[in-house]
Protein 1
Amino acid sequence: MKKLAFLFLSILGMVGTLVFGQITINPPLTPLQYVQNIVGPGIAVSNVTFTGNSSQIGAFSGTSNIGYNSGVVLSSGAVSELVGPASSSSAGTINVSGLSDPDLLNIASTTAQSLGIGNISSTSDLVALEFDFVAESNLVSFNFVFASDEYLTYVNTAFNDIFGFFVAGPGITGPYAAPTAFPNGSQNLAVVPGTSTPITISTIHPNLNSQYFVNNAGGTTHTMNGLTIPIPITFNVICGETYHFKFAVADCQDNFLSTAVFLQDDSFTSPPVDLSLLTANGTDTIPEACIGAEVLFIRSECQSSDSLEVNFTVSGTAIDSVDYELAASPIIMLPGQDSAAISIVPIIDNIAEGTESITVSISFLNSVGDTVVISGTVYLTDIEPVTIDESDLQFQCFNDSIELTAIASGGSGSFTYDWASSASDSIHDYVSINENGTFDYIVNVTDACLGTFTDTATVIMNQTIAIDTMYSFPSSCEPTGAVSGIVVGTTGVANYNWTGPGPNNSNFINASVWEDLSSGWYYFSVTDLVCSANDSVFVDILNPPVAAFTVDPLFGCDPLTVTLTNESENADTYIWNFGDGQTSTLTNLAPFTHLYSNSTISPINYVIQLIVKQGQNCADTITQSIVSNICGCTDPEATNYNPLATVDDGSCILPNPEIEAPNIFTPNSDGANDVFFLSSKNLKSLRLIIVNRWGNTVFDETSTDLITKNPTWDGLKAEEGVYFYRYEGTGFTGNELTGHGFIHLVRTEN
């Protein structure tokens, strides 16, 4: 409602008298022509597009406080409304385009929230000019002025009109929209110089960033109530690559009271050479000493294939060859050379001249013949003697971290620090002082030009409170110990504090003596009106109990009887846990036995524990393991084999071997008595030898597996008659069994 009322009053004013100022809006051009107006040397453009109402863009000219005599203006209202004095009209045609922009809304909303000026939920009356461009160097720059009829009434309100300069292309990544050919998004360059804060009427005004603000209330050259000074924009690109640029302006939260951006003609350029001044001390000021500066001329790779002659001029209050030395212009950059440097060497004249300036400039002509200048300035100051301001300190309390400080000034301004007491190489050093006295700490400061200077930081320590002596009295197992601290030099009433492992360790003991304590470390601190001190003392223990015993044997066969010998000291009670579920509490050291009976089928490891106690508060514990085995005969061949035994006790009983032999066999394949073999028992091996009546061996075979391969003679090729046999056998116990006999081989008909 307040803006509509303002519009009504402005219209009444316009009806009365229409006064035109010096700014002129020229006849309309095409979008391409507008872009060609603002683009200067080193820039090639393409794909020009325009969004908005044609009344929102125009070419302006004339002498004004805008700072440019000609250029292109984009407005959230009709640009024709910019003509006239500031008092004659409130520029801002309602719903001139009816368009909005999400990126401008995002910037406006985020900025309003950061300033705490409310919520911006809409933009309107968008106007945007976009184009692709290719730069001949790695640097692009242009100049603009931001102006608004919102000034100053609506500063820090939601009526915070917005504009943006969006660039997209290789090496640029940003959160804002860009054409599909530029998938990494775009960045907004319309920010307060040296910050990331977007420019609006609420970020540049008389109370914030005022160095950029111009109050146009009562101005006669245009209708905007306020504007910025001309602001340069410079950004880096990759020469020869294609980039996209978008100028955009919109109203916020309403569609009245216009905001405009004035772009200087021929200012969107890519300078062939860039200039920077570098100083050895990293500042823009150099003293008349060994600290000099370097003038660096830089050109892009796209231009480095040719020779380039760079003419430069030098100006300022300092005089060449009197206050400094600098090579004469021009310099030549050869093919393949992308940078060149010359040095500024100060001359020490020992004359107090104050601060003098040295400005180095390069210039080139833009497309319309105007001179564009790039310059840099350094300042030359008189050399002053080196002085060191060091810290002299006094303390009344011991301190483990006292900060010493030494700051040098004068000279070249480039210093290095070296504290003799430590490895510190900064203006600060930290020392620990825990005794009274005066302590000196030497610092060496080296000026880059004038050499090394030495100074001393002095610390006086005068702590009066001290703990003179700590006493302790040993404790038995019934807490009977005590501690005491003797304090001297207190100021006012002192507070004491003891902590330790005693039964009262959680209490604040405000006394110099603490009694009825157990053994351990006790920590004592005392605090008076000025400072504090602390110390510690150990309370020993008298003859503590020690648990010890032996077991014999440590292993054996179940049932196992062991003898336990108690070798403990300083105890009056002995609590035994035998590990088999049985316990015993004794009051003497006499040896005794214990029986372990293992009813399981496997060995058992028993852990014997002895707890020895002295009174109710002291104890010691020790353990010992023993093993009860299952013992017996583990040989399966023995008559007394025990399959549950895990340890062989040597009791195995093995049977004697036995052999029986037939005296006749009939090898006629009738299935009865067809082969000759020996029947045996309890043998591990058997050899059978058969000899005919002429003494010739007809069969000899040995076997160690008598179950599956008992030596057997089939006699199929032998004649009837009597044969002699002999055998050799070995029993399970290793005993041998030999014998012989006769066998009749009889052939009968089937």
Protein 2
Amino acid sequence: MVWSATTFPPPGSAEEHETFIKLQAKLKSYYQKIAADRNEAHTTIIVPSLSMNEAELRKISGVASYEERLLCLLMLLQRPRTRIVFLSSVQIHPVIVQYYLNFLSGIPYSHAMRRLVLLDAVDASPKPLTQKILERPWLMDRITKAMGDPDRSHMVVFNTSPLERTLAVRLGVPVYGVDPSLLHLGNKSGGRRVFKEADIPLPAGFEDLYSEDEVVEGLDRLWQEESGILRAVVKLNDGFAGAGNALFDYRPLMDYKQAAPNERKTKLAAALHDMRFEADGETWPNFRTQFREMGGVVETFIEGDVKYSPSVQARVNAANQPQVISTHDQILGGSTGQTFLGCRFPARPDYRLQLQEDGRKIAEVLSHKGVLGRFAVDFIVVPTPNGFQRYAIEINMRKGGTTHPFLVMKFLIEGGYDESSGIYISALGEEKYYLATDNIFDKKFPGMGPEDLIDALVYHRIHFHSQLQRGVVFHMIGAMSQHGKLGITCIGNSVEETNQLNRATIEALSKEADPEGRHQRLEFY
């Protein structure tokens, strides 16, 4: 079929949504066929577009290379009758593609390559990849040709937005992801409503706010109603990786807590300019503009000298079955400690089983509302004399920083997630752990290309070893040369082993940044 804008319903129209719902109805039988027969012929169209607020994405260094995080899905080529069409904004370096294909077990490289089609928009602009695709009828033609039978094809995306719905309709294939009309369930306000429905503890606060006056009113009510409150968090509904958060401090205003309401609110409004913003260079006037556009929440900042930031990853599969996939302890940083830097699998044994149960309840609520696909729920956990107090704080209705590390381990190590212990057990009976991050960074790293990186990791013996089932898997390799930024997943048989692999990786890369340090490796050449 040759693509033509006149053959499809207008984007965002009721007709488009109706067509999308009909396509989505095909997923259940499609899923059942693939699950029953690994030789079932099908095409997976991978569109790793970060279809989110552009202003928020600009706050993330090297964000264009986040598309590479879904390259781990190339390991689906282990199924001998699977074809993959992988889209990207710009061409992915061939060495990076080869790096992932070399992880395939039992499949010759040449066999996998015949079933892989790489297409790109030749567009490095900050627009979402899906928008770039829709703007290029020639690229749409190539996708249609490459995928073959639409009745044997489906899309996998980073997140679904109206753009992905339009692309699915124009390709005539379903997408394994939530209907964009339900995305509100996964923003900060929607998450608070879901937590209440699932009877999960959450911080005191207020959702569905849109104006400065509403922010001030929320801050004032928290100040008056929550005994001992010191700080609050103001969050954009659709912030990404913590970059849409701001920390409000009541302590400099304590003399005004008992003042008249108007005077109190005037002081609170003035103090909005003094908030600590998680994104570098953010200001209240700019933040306020974004808040008016997307809305947000105000909630209590959970205090504690010791606290943890775990998450539970879950999904509603194509058969509408809610499932818990994994738990993690998140590694946070940034100016106020709210930026996602990485994660450890699994979460601490003290609370991981409780998180599993919470995740199951939330997945059940979302499945009843029609949600489909993967999502993660973030928590804050604080030790108490009687155990731990937990607070659910966010639902990420998309693939996130905890998605690809678990997929990598699952693809590389045969085994399964044991819900009774919350640990991944390999087919050899070994417990498996990992530490993952998107934020290996050094100002000395820019200029290191994929060939340099891969040679270095092999030389320093940190590359993942399939027989030992331990080592380091790299992602976002394309960000290294321009941004000096890299992602890693360190897989081992203990927490300490993953920490050791992380330290060894940083040490090896630091040596590479020193001309004298890399001389010995290069001497061979």
